Amino acid sequence: MLLWQTSQTINFAQGEFVMLPAFFVLAAMKFGGLSFPLAILAGLALALLVLGLLFKRLVVDPIIRHGVLPLVISTVALAIFLKEGVKEFYAADAQAFPAAWATTNLALGPAVVSVQNLVIIAVAVAAVGLLQYFLGGTRTGRQMQATAQNPALARILGIPVERMILYTFLINAALVALASFLISPIYLAKFTNGETLGLVAFVAAIVGGFNQVRGAIVGGLLVGVIDNFVAAYWSSQYRAAIPLFLLIAVILFRPQGLLGRAEERTV
Amino acid sequence: MAASGNGDAVLVLEDVIAGYGGLTVLNGTSLRAARGAITTIIGPNGAGKSTVFKTVFGLLPVRAGRILFEGCEVTNLGPRKLLELGISYVPQGRNIFPELSVRHNLELGATAAGAGIDIAARIESVMDRFPMLRQRAAAQASTLSGGQQKLLEIARSLLLDPKLMLIDEPSIGLSPRLVQETFAILRDLRSKGMSILMVEQNAKRALEISDFGVIIELGRTRMTGEARAILADPDVGQLFLGGGLTAEIA
């Protein structure tokens, strides 16, 4: 979403981007012989390089000149490439991924909560808080926002627009790596992981409002909560359809998203 | 002060050829902006008025000719370098960051500031000058009215204390009263020694507050001279200012 704002990039490989860093870590352990903490660092570095820098330089920069649609199609191709690449060259079955924390459960009154889930929520909240602080509270962050809101004007004011866009790609890469390391211990590392993730994230972004980070978070929570309630109280058979149903409802009744603002199109 | 000789011209374009892609818009344009004065570029739609600014500010490449600022060649320098040298550019239309606060919009005007510049103090002094901006400092810039947004843009372009301001169609979309206020601000800036090069559709009103005028047509300089003389020229009135002016003068 940040990518969309700063560079008009829609990445349909975003789900695969979350799938991949876990395999970077596994490969670093298996072939590089690194310990888990070092492999995590190596995975993060590789994610920044491959999913940040190289994605921008080799895929987005050359293709976006031809328009948004070619880029969309290219990212769909990239998604397939990444998925099949992992299947062919690493493994077709799900791989166990070590967790960096205890896998016990915690009894909170009547509810039993797994420590893993708590860690995930805490880290996700911290990451979003940090991101929001960076974007709003630092000069560089505000220059990134300015670049997102009006790149032509940002350039006129001397903001290094190219560098700001690169930062956006690097932040995106760091965030997908973080997400990958958080969810892989639970869902295991599998080459198909990106499919559902990408879809749910995309729906969350649309539901919440495509042009707001806050919107996507609300959208994500909403999709998750509704999805689980439907599965628990109604029927789990319809579960997979819920995000799509929400997507259609929002596009029909509130196309700018729940928290989004309507985009002005000027000629 | 006459605009002859490079000595008192702050900006000079010499036979500039530039345009968009394969389209040539400036076809050997020559003009100058006099120091400490307001120079207004007028001409029909599509004559290349805004293109002059985009070319000077490094947004379009100069294919031939050269551009001098304070006697130094600045041809094909980028916005950042030109801001550092002391040129600011207020483009046509709405040019704010709608979701950032008024204060942060101002702050971004100082992006190209050198290390020794106290940006907070600069923002304070601009707010002293335009108290409305202080009152609305924390508000999202999108909540300002059209006139307030234009004021914010002008204020933002003053943060680096430029020697020359390029301002494109400041009156567009503003009520007559706000146009008057905006022009008053430009006159005030001139009285403090700033040089201003303006493009205006509202040619008559603009020339009335200008020292010099430049008429361009089809990307070439048609006429250049004192604003008063251009206003008084019956041919110009007929061709570029609308028939009303000729009637008024006659």
Descriptive overview:
The complex is a heterodimer of chains A (267) and B (250). Chain A has 267 residues and is mainly alpha-helical. Chain A folds into 2 domains: 2-190, no CATH class; 192-267. Helices cover 71% and strands 3% of the residues of chain A. Chain A has 11 helices and 2 strands. Chain A has helices spanning 2-7, 14-30, 36-64, 68-89, 115-137, 139-149, 151-156, 161-187, 193-208, 213-233, 242-253, and strands at 105-108, 111-114. Chain A has a two-stranded antiparallel ribbon with strand order 1-2. In chain A, helix 2 (14-30) packs antiparallel against helix 3 (36-64) and helix 9 (193-208) packs parallel to helix 11 (242-253). The radius of gyration of chain A is 19 Å and the shape is globular. The two termini of chain A are 24 Å apart. The mean pLDDT of chain A is 83. Chain B has 250 residues and is an alpha/beta fold. Chain B has 2 domains: 1-86 and 162-250, Rossmann fold, CATH 3.40.50.300; 95-161, no CATH class. Chain B is built from 11 helices and 10 strands. Chain B has helices at 49-56, 79-85, 102-108, 119-129, 131-135, 146-157, 176-191, 203-209, 227-232, 234-240, 243-249, and strands at residues 9-20, 23-34, 38-42, 62-69, 72-73, 87-90, 164-168, 195-199, 212-217, 220-226. In chain B, strands 6-7-8-3-9-10 form a 6-stranded mixed β-sheet, sandwiched between helices. In chain B, strand 4 (62-69) and strand 5 (72-73) form a beta hairpin. In chain B, helix 10 runs antiparallel to helix 11. The two termini of chain B are 28 Å apart. Mean pLDDT of chain B is 89; it is low at 1-5 and 243-250. The chains are: A mainly alpha (267), B alpha/beta (250). The interface between A and B is medium-sized, with 16 and 21 residues.
